[in-house]
Amino acid sequence: MATGYFFSHRHILGIDELSKDDILHILDTADSFKEISARPIKKVPTLRGHTVINLFYEPSTRTRLSFEIAAKRMSADTFNISPSTSSATKGETLIDTARNISAMHPDIIIVRHSFSGAPHMLSRYVNAAVINAGDGAHEHPSQGLLDMMTVKEHKGRLNDLKIAIIGDISHSRVAHSAIEGFTTMGSEVHVFGPATLLPKGLEQLGAKVCTSMEEVVRDADVVMTLRIQLERQNDPLLPSLREYSRRFGVSQKMMSLAKPDALVMHPGPVNRGVELMPEVADSTQSVILNQVTNGVAVRMALLYLVMGNS
Amino acid sequence: MRQCEGVMERSWVIKNGRVVDPANKVDQQCDIIVQDGVISTGDEIGVDDLPVIDAAGCLVVPGLIDMHTHLREPGQEYKEDITSGTLAAASGGFTAVACMPNTCPVNDNSAVCAMILEKARSAAARVYPVGAISKGSEGKQLAEYGELRAAGAVAVSDDGLPVTDSQLMRRALEYASDFDLAVIAHCEDPALSTGVMNEGEMSTQLGLKGIPNAAESVMVYREIALAEFTGKKVHIAHVSTAMSVDLIRQAKARGVRVTAETAPHYFTLTDEAVSGYITNAKMNPPLRTGEDRAAVIHGLQDGTLDAIATDHAPHSILEKEMEFDVAAFGIIGLETAVPLTLTLLHQGVIDASRMVELLAVNPARILGVEGGSLAPGAAADITIIDPKLEFSYSVDQVVSKSRNSPFLDWTLTGRSMLTMVDGAVQFSRFI
Description:
heterodimer, A: 2 domains, globular
């Protein structure tokens, strides 16, 4: 890392805004926080007196819990708000909600929203630091960072790796953040899925679009599968999960094409037997639960860094 | 800048300007004489006694006609009304606007048409109502074109919505021809068009749902096929894609009676303007790619596209200051069309005569209305343009009630200086 580096981001809106140095700095910081979660007394006073608001317009179990645990282990005061998007559309606008929350002087607002760009808009109307916990089909930066942290722990590096991502690339903010992150770090991201779920412009984002399961998995260092949904807003994307599972599900046989020490990853929740066969999800190559553990450390690092600590 | 009120002088001599009047094959420095609201040869009057408008350094052209405007009255007067919309038109150099029928209620009957024309009597520009293709623009049954024509409508359109029923569209083309009404087609396949911006690299990068260019092309081709089969005329609104331009070019070469317009934003911006989730770059059809933009410009050059229309679509901050997904489609355009079109002129893409064809001659021809000519005997609808004047289009200058423009704070080159309707000065920046 260049000398004189300093983390200058007030908000974490997407990995597309982070440099290689930023990513390394976040991962190093996360690494140093990881042991806190292994202590008998899992609490440090770092963010004592700070107010953290979880503003979740979309249902979430693990991401919200992970952010809340991260904040509490740093001694911040946390509050959860889950307005449903539908009632919000009828009533108060997001801008008004933002201004009202801002008037109570929180330090950090963690926002998840089904609309891409909502955290960006929010960040223009509040004094607090905004962390994007997933916006529409745009980005999920803390997920991308925990993915990179997990890979770095196991591979010792983030460059010159072949990352295979399989599934619904069109609607996946996880895939988008992973593509941004891993390509920034100097690895190659190869993607594959049904043609109905591969959006235009992936090459320009830096991904390589494959034409078969064999091509995407062969010699991969990491095989990441994504959760699949049959239909979105009446858009007929796939005929059945059965057919998806046969053609795009990752089996042990398919994994034999990847490097012997390839990692199996999934952002969760897993549809066992659909995108990932149970024997693969439970294999020794699977680091799915390590991803969850690292999620807390990465989120502690983000909370710490957006508060201007370094 | 002023709006002129009270008893209006309607006789003038416009001196020292470059008169560009392609309908009469004129492009030269000469005087234009206006007598009692009509363009005159000056043979029978004492020209020396007339008040002078000095148009030195300016273009003097037939009054510009915007064939695609949303005035929002009746029903959404908080966004725009006939008074404010026509004033925005006059300030932007337009002497006439054709107003789309997607008001509340929809202009599908003589009462709404008559109300619009009554309000327009005191407006700053001529107003040509466009009636609905279908009752309530619901796409189910034809509106009463005879009644609409008698009440003053010049065209029909369900603009804002496509006519999804192909049989209804076919019948509309046929039936409208009985009343000499232009049919203006909003080409969009609603099943394909469920997104919020152009589908491509930018939509993937921003995680926004895309509208494929095919959503426009498939309907453009349907209208062409129907016009070809019936032998009737059709006008394609707001062309935004390279494929649409190609389809229209090929159809014209076959002799299909198709005409088409595009809007300044499609030849000025690309979908990269959406970056940052800018809702003033959200419109339908959406801003497309650089390739589409280049094809639209080529279409304006080679005659494939007949007109530049603004698709002036005022929305208040209530519809625009929100998440991109739920913000309203549309931007205002009456005040920026002239400088944005002049950019093509300054770049040498089109000449002054072509500009006047696109903004005045062809819109008049397509709509079947007077205008587009400075021949003696014509109504004195005249626009004077300073092609070199630089100005910053700041928010405090916006004349429209709404401010939803992606060109706010742009430095633009070229501005309308004076707008005259029937010899009466409706807007002037000379004083």
